[in-house]
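Suppose a colleague, Dr. K., hands you the sequence of a protein chain of 244 amino acids and asks what its three-dimensional shape might be. Before reaching for any lab equipment, you can write down a predicted structure in token form. Begin with the sequence itself:
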Amino acid sequence: MFKSTALAAALLSLSALAQASDVATILKKADAFRQTDSSAQIETLVQTYKNGEPDKEKRYQVLIRPGGKSLILFRSPGEVGQKVLMSGDDFWMLLPGSARPMRITPLQKLLGDASTGDIATMTWSGDYDGSIKSESSCDGQPCLELELTATRKTLSYQRVVLHVAKQDYRPLHADLYAASGRKLKQARYFIEQREGRPTVTRISLRDEVQTARETVVTTLSSKPRQFGDELFNAMYLSRNDITL
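The predicted structure, expressed as tokens, is then:
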């Protein structure tokens, strides 16, 4: 009896490890559709819609590099000179004329439902643990539903229910939850061919409460580029203008 119980427990443990490995692989492949280069300069347009009608729009330039570092440069009239820096779990807002950076959270809104975390952080692998919850059909194609749990309390969303295509693991849509368990919004991912490969070029964010409101984050362009360490130093940024 003891041997049977031990064997069953061992098999369950191996099954759990195998699924964890599968999920890690799936998330890495899903991430590859959103972030094609580990170090890049990305031009981003954020637009809001009310009842399907255009409302507001803003432009941002996003610099990313390995190690969880991102810098958002505001490019819309009236906001030029503002910056948001993400370095690991730390987020800072830098304003022109201010001597010191201000700490903010990754849920700080930029426009509509687009937060700093939505634009500055672009990966699931490494930030979430998860399991395969079920197989179903999404928009007429076989898909997998993944239940993801944040590995750190500082992440924008503590729980994510992510649907990916079963064939190639491209992200389809995700339900995004706060630490309280409240569903904040749903993200839908739209893919086009860029540089000969399928890439997420547009993300639609819908508020869970204000369902008539939609925020669309569009990647206008992305190019690989290397950056100096100073661009990801909060004190340097507070004292210097950035020209790219």
